[in-house]
Structure formats: C-alpha cells, structure tokens
Design a protein that fits this description.
Layout lengths: L3 E8 L5 E11 L7 E13 L26
Antiparallel strand pairs: 1-2, 2-3
Length: 73
C-alpha cells in the first residue's frame, strides 16, 4: 500500500483517478506498517482504479442542504 494525497481533478467509471499536487508518504524499511515521515512530491498523476483501495477527504466533511429537495417539502 502506498498512501498518496492530492487534489482530485477527475475520475471515470473504473475509478481511475487524476490527482494534482500529489504527495506520496514513504514507509519505514524495517516496518512497512509505519510511515517514516518522509514524503515524495509526485505532481500530476493518474492512479489506476484497480489499485485504489480508499478515497476519503483529508479535511473532514461538511453537511450541506440537499439541493434536490423542493422548498417546503
């Protein structure tokens, strides 16, 4: 697993992702479950959908009003 963060610029039905300003977080050599704190700047990348395990916001989520509900419903 290679944790990567970035700005989602696009995706398709196969979950191929286009990420801008992507950063990869490197893991420890002796313990691959721990992050080393080192990062690698990747820039603009395409992640193949078959390799994507999780997509989530890094800053949390906000609840917004449903724009599809009619007024007074």
């Amino acid at each position: 697993m290679r944790p990567v963060t970035g700005t989602l610029k696009g995706y398709d039905q196969l979950l191929n992702l286009v990420l801008d300003e992507a950063v990869e977080y490197e893991r420890e050599q002796d313990d691959p479950l721990k992050l080393s704190g080192k990062t690698r700047q990747l820039g603009l990348i395409v992640c193949r959908g078959t390799a994507v395990m999780l997509v989530s916001p890094t800053d949390g989520t906000d609840e917004i009003a449903n724009p599809f509900l009619a007024d007074g419903a």
